[in-house]
Amino acid sequence: MVELVVLAVLGIVGLAAAVLVGMAVLLVHVVLWVVLLPFRILFKLLWLPVWLALGAVGLVLGTVALPLLLIVGVGALLFALTAALVGVLLPALPFVLLGLLVWAVLRRPRPVTL
Predict the structure, then answer these.
(1) Residue 31: is its pLDDT beyond 90?
(2) CA-based Rg of the chain, rounded to a whole angstrom?
(3) In whole angstroms, what is the distance from residue 37 CA to residue 43 CA?
(4) What spatial distance separates the first Cα and last Cα of the chain, rounded to whole Å?
């Protein structure tokens, strides 16, 4: 029983040590973040023209590519609809041909009028 108590105390001490190390790392992280914040803001402001230029290039390429993509998309949609229609009607083809054959055999020819 004493061994379990010692093991529990060792676990608690280990967790306390982990908390202390974690708090120290968090404190260093916060201090470095606050100290380096002006440099981060400066670098963001220096990169702002590059980001704006890349955004403009992306906008131009997007306005060129969007109509092409829409044309391709509409073509693919029409192809898919045609394929679906053929897929639905193809199994009925033997029955349609049989009906046309029966109609051709059983129809009455019209008399020729002069």
Answers:
(1) yes
(2) 39
(3) 10
(4) 122
